Automatic annotation (TrEMBL):
InterPro entries: 5hmC_binding, EVE_domain, PUA-like_sf, THYN1-like_EVE. This is EVE domain-containing protein. Signal peptide: none annotated. PANTHER family: THYMOCYTE NUCLEAR PROTEIN 1 (PTHR14087:SF7). Residues 2-134 form the EVE domain. CDD domains: EVE (cd21133).
Length: 141
């Protein structure tokens, strides 16, 4: 299993919105960055990701799971843009802010810390465990 981080502006699409979509989840559409798209192309069903609220909050608030691998993005007619479908699986007990991640020496190489603008990014196994430690655990939905 690989790990990822998905960023969304909570006033546009929040973790609560993803929870409301239920088991079928939602396509992670609208991504127009080649690196982020390529990250989604690398995802496999069952991969997990942190759900990060960008702009407002700037914090990891939940965990989602890839339920459909890369497919054409329905929000465009351009075939070069693809997306995956994700569903919410757990809420973190304590959100982890960008500032907190930046202050944690063990996360100095994390993409979020070094390129916080990338909307879909990889997370290493070690970074995943460190973030989970910082959250104090999760509450399965």
């Amino acid at each position: 299993m690989a790990y990822w981080l998905f960023k969304s502006e909570p006033d546009v699409f929040s973790f609560d919105d993803l929870i409301a979509r239920g088991a079928q989840g939602e396509q992670w559409d609208g991504v127009r960055n080649y690196q982020a798209r390529n990250n989604m192309r690398a995802m496999k069903k069952g991969d997990r990701g942190f759900f990060y609220h960008s702009n407002i909050g700037k914090e990891i608030v939940g965990i989602c799971e890839v339920v459909a691998e890369a497919h054409p993005d329905s929000t465009t007619d351009n075939p070069k843009w693809e997306c995956v479908d994700v569903r919410a699986v757990a809420r973190v007990l304590r959100p982890v802010s960008l500032d907190e991640a930046k202050a944690e020496p063990r996360l100095k190489d994390m993409v979020l810390v070094n390129n916080s603008r990338l909307s879909v990014q990889p997370v290493s196994d070690a970074e995943w465990e460190i973030i989970l430690e910082l959250t104090g655990g999760t509450q399965t939905l």
